[in-house]
Amino acid sequence: MVLSNKSRSPEFLACGKGLTPPIPGGLRPGLIFFNDEGTENGGLVFMGGKDSIGNYNATGHLSFDQYNQNQVIYLQYSDTNGSQNTGLHIDDWQNSPDFWDWRTAYKKAQKLPEGKEKEALLKKLIEPKAGHRSNAG
């Protein structure tokens, strides 16, 4: 596990290797959990603050990840200028593809121009594959 402030927070790791270029200023302050293979598998993070015009956001998040997948159980509080979302969340992720590969494809699809092609690709990425549990998207 790693305990760090935001600026020293590690990048996303899978099998001990970085999956994203380091983000200037870091990702998230808190306690990040890693499995025996050096893959992130949950964490306890807290963030919050105001911008220059007084808008604020705040987050408290405790999560546990499925093996080589995204979080499946998390307790979260988030607040953006009074719009709050809190609760215990349980997500049902597929076993395949690995979350890291799915996430890369999903982020590429999000960058496409708005339209039917983008909608179809995002829908395809979110729909469960035959023989696999559903994907929380």
Low-confidence stretches: none
Return the string of H and E elements: EEEEEEEEHH
β-sheet strand percentage: 35-45%
Number of structural units classed as domains = 2
Strand order of the largest sheet: 1-4-5-6-7-8
Q: What value does the average pLDDT take?
A: 82
The counted number of beta strands is 8
Query: Distance between termini?
Result: 26 Å
> Structural class of the secondary structure composition?
alpha+beta
Shape: globular
Model description:
- There is one protein chain.
- The chain is an alpha+beta fold.
- The chain folds into two domains: about 1-90, no CATH class; about 95-135, no CATH class.
- It contains two helices and eight strands, in the order ββββββββαα.
- A hairpin with a 5-residue loop joins β4 (about 30-35) and β5.
- It starts with a strand and ends in an 11-residue tail after the last helix.
- The mean pLDDT is about 80.
Summary tags:
single chain, 137 residues, 6-stranded antiparallel beta sheet, two-stranded antiparallel sheet, 37% strand
Offer a quick outline of the entry.
17% of the residues lie in helices and 37% in strands.
Task: Outline the fold blueprint.
Blueprint: E1 2-4, E2 13-14, E3 17-18, E4 30-34, E5 40-50, E6 56-65, E7 71-80, E8 83-90, H1 99-110, H2 116-126
Antiparallel strand pairs: 1-4, 2-3, 4-5, 5-6, 6-7, 7-8
